[in-house]
Amino acid sequence: MKAVIPAAGMGTRFLPATKAIPKEMLPVGNKPVIQYVVEEALAASADEVIIVNSREKKAIEAHFAPDAELEATLRGKGKDALADSVAHAGSLPVSFVYQDEPLGLGHAAHCASEKTGNDAFYVLLGDVIVPGNEMLPRMKEVSDAHGGASVIAVLPVPEEEVSRFGVIAGVEVEPGVWKMSGIVEKPALEDAPSNLIVFGRYLLSPRVMELLANQAPGVGGEIQLTDALEAVMAEEEMYALVISPSEGYDTGTVESWFATNAALMQG
Ligand code: G1P
């Protein structure tokens, strides 16, 4: 199965830090955020990770390219552990496609459609990292138990926060697993069907990719992945796995990025 990581956004929340450095390259500890996300996908047996990049963010591509010269310099100085870390980053099976216009998350995911083909695929948002790497395998278990259905990870949040996220409707069919009946992007509080928000990890059926090809713009004038999920539910079952806050770390705001660095340094 392929994994898609949308990474073409401008990272405006982190300006001026992201004036010349892509948001995805900001470090958590000694690794850029996006390397955690790539490694999480590979730990879940993804055979290829497709980063949906913008053409300006070459630093992401440089990070995942081999650098024989740097490696040799480090080995010459006896710094083999560092050389190994450089070699590792350059050896990960990452490929790139481009999103040339900022038309939304659904559009970004669809930019990888030629590579995902007729197979189910993962989507991993780069704002969150899951250092334990256990979320995608659990989602795959739920999918396998329900005939290959799409499964997304959802997180319970205080209700005043729901309007910043995608929010699901459904019923709990076993502890921690909901059968979904709807999903809505950034609803007003009074319209939110639950307090379970879309966390940023998706295992999606190939039909979602087909629907994205013709998905009309939604909230914010953007082609929303959420809207294609709502559409696919008319044809296929879809499930949500409820995760706990300790399983994932948000790096999407300056405050949460600091908190994530602090939390992982302690761990
Ligand atoms: C995106 C998704 C939203 C999800 C969120 C998680 O929104 O559209 O459904 O809840 O990521 O971070 P964005 O943060 O890009 O506005």
Name of the CATH first level: Alpha Beta
> What is the overall number of helices?
10
Beta-strand proportion: 25-35%
- Give the biggest beta sheet: 9 strands, mixed
Tell me the total number of β-strands.
Answer: 13
The 3D shape can be described as: globular
User: How many structural domains in the coordinates?
Assistant: 1
Mean pLDDT: 96
Task: Output the CATH homologous superfamily.
Answer: Spore Coat Polysaccharide Biosynthesis Protein SpsA, Chain A
| DSSP helix fraction | 25-40%
Summing up helix and strand content along with how strands pair, one would put the structural category as alpha/beta
Helices and strands, in order, run as EEEHEHHHEHHEEHEEEEHHEEH
CATH architecture: Alpha-Beta Complex
Terminal Cα span? 31 Å
Strand order of the largest sheet: 5-4-1-6-11-8-12-10-9
Low-confidence stretches: none
Characterise this structure:
Helix 8 (206-212) crosses helix 9 (225-232). This protein has 267 residues and is an alpha/beta fold. Strand 2 and strand 3 form a beta hairpin. The two termini are 31 Å apart. The radius of gyration is 19 Å and the shape is globular. It has helices at residues 33-43, 58-63, 68-76, 80-91, 105-110, 113-116, 135-145, 206-212, 225-232, 254-266; strands at 2-6, 27-28, 31-32, 48-53, 94-98, 121-124, 128-129, 150-156, 166-174, 177-185, 196-204, 238-242, 249-250. The strands form three sheets. It has a nine-stranded mixed β-sheet with strand order 5-4-1-6-11-8-12-10-9, with helices on both faces. A two-stranded antiparallel sheet has the order 2-3. A two-stranded antiparallel sheet has the order 7-13. It is 33% helix and 25% strand. The protein has one domain (2-266): Spore Coat Polysaccharide Biosynthesis Protein SpsA, Chain A (Alpha-Beta Complex), CATH 3.90.550.10. The structure holds 1-O-phosphono-alpha-D-glucopyranose (G1P). 1-O-phosphono-alpha-D-glucopyranose is lined by residues 105, 125, 127, 165-166, 185, 197-198, 200, 224-226.
